[in-house]
Amino acid sequence: xxxxxxxLTIKLDEAFVELIADFILNIYEEGLELxxxxxxxxxxxxxxxxxxxxxxxxxxxxxxxxxxxAIEEKENVDWIKTYQDSVQPIEAGKFYIFPSWxxxxxxxxxxxxxxxxxxxSGHHGTTFACLEAISKYVKATHSxxxxxxxxxxxxxxxxxxxxxxxxxxxxxxxVDSTKENFSLNNAHYDAxxxxxxxxxxxxxxxxxxxxxxxxxxxxxxxxxxxxKTQGILILSGILEKKRKCSTCxx
Length: 250
Known about the structure:
Elements: E1 4-12, H1 17-25, E2 32-35, E3 38-43, H2 48-60, E4 67-75, H3 79-86, E5 90-92, E6 95-98, E7 109-112, H4 125-137, E8 143-147, H5 153-160, E9 164-169, H6 172-184, E10 191-194, E11 204-210, H7 213-218, H8 220-225, E12 227-236, H9 243-246
Parallel strand pairs: 6-7, 8-9, 8-11, 9-10, 11-12
Antiparallel strand pairs: 1-3, 1-4, 2-3, 5-6
């Protein structure tokens, strides 16, 4: 363990905390601490690249999300263990999401996710909402693709329901995290690749994309083309203030 670590504190509107946390976890695989109107990122190396990525994101969103940043170098503590101790299991729809240091729960579908291995543990509202939608709409006879799979949690949930599952993500860290989490759950995906949905020639009964609105808009045509007639699109990550215009992109 190094003697010091870096801490990036982001202050922002409480309504955007979960959305920005999801974005950060797509480029940085350690745990985050979420507070009221703030996000704290910790690491043993300089975190300026995260700040720079957030500045670029804010510019693409035309100032809809305003953030302030502070980076400090601090004396090291075992902050990964502290983060682990703070993570509690959750229930979302038919699913029970828990880290490996907890036990499974009867009468629910168990998904084991270790937060130090990957992001997307079901605690963020966007992921939680997708799990609820999966519980309601996904059947064992369906074929599913999880676009921007992150930790693979949504694809895992579908596989636990008995479906055929494909997953993809443009981030190689996400692809590796998905492999790890499927292995952790003794589950097997049917297809997994680095890249987006445009690399598939298949069509699916259920297409899931838990991604920020600008990316959803960019890949909207591909999402629609990959969805079977009478199929279902499950989209999340859309800002409430952009909900009406975002739903029109398809």
